[in-house]
TrEMBL record:
Name this protein carries in UniProt: CoA-binding protein
Superkingdom classification of source: Bacteria
Source organism (scientific name): Mycolicibacillus koreensis
PANTHER family tied to this protein: COA-BINDING DOMAIN-CONTAINING PROTEIN (PTHR33303:SF2), CYTOPLASMIC PROTEIN-RELATED (PTHR33303)
SUPFAM superfamilies: NAD(P)-binding Rossmann-fold domains
Classification lineage: Bacteria, Bacillati, Actinomycetota, Actinomycetes, Mycobacteriales
Length: 141
């Protein structure tokens, strides 16, 4: 089976341009964590409405953090994932409970799971793996 992940610059640029809402799964209040750095970067662009997801914290700098995707007040266009690889199937299962489904599943740098990518693509999601949304946004904007 062919790799269903998005890798070309034109499609990545389209995803970033069409996206209005982003859920950051695995958001951290620790400024040293990549998820916190990327949250701050994306917030600084002013281009996106951001929703933070982490069941272990309730806020980051006064911004509400939701325990799970189903608790968000919107269905995000894109779900940006900062979780361990072994947790990716559970994250995808949670994404697929949302109706309608988000348009894009973005697995941050270092995250790759071919089965999760195939299952997400089969459900109609665009899949980006092993890429940093901050790096791609800065490169393609």
């Amino acid at each position: 089976m062919t790799d269903p992940t998005v890798t070309d610059a034109a499609t990545l640029q389209t995803i970033l341009a069409e996206t209005r809402t982003i859920a950051i799964v695995g958001a951290s209040a620790n400024p040293a964590r990549p998820s916190n750095e990327i949250y701050r970067y994306l917030a600084g662009t002013g281009a996106y409405e951001l929703y933070l997801v982490n069941p272990t914290i309730t806020e980051i700098d006064g911004v509400r953090v939701y325990p799970k995707l189903a608790d968000l007040p919107v269905i995000p266009d894109l779900v940006d994932v900062f979780r361990r690889r072994d947790q990716l199937p559970a994250v995808l299962a949670e994404v697929l409970t949302l109706t309608p489904h988000p348009r894009t599943l973005w697995l941050q740098s270092g995250l790759r799971d071919a089965q999760v990518a195939r299952d997400a693509a089969a459900a109609g999601l665009r899949v980006v793996m092993d890429r940093c949304i901050k790096v791609e946004h800065a490169r393609l904007s």
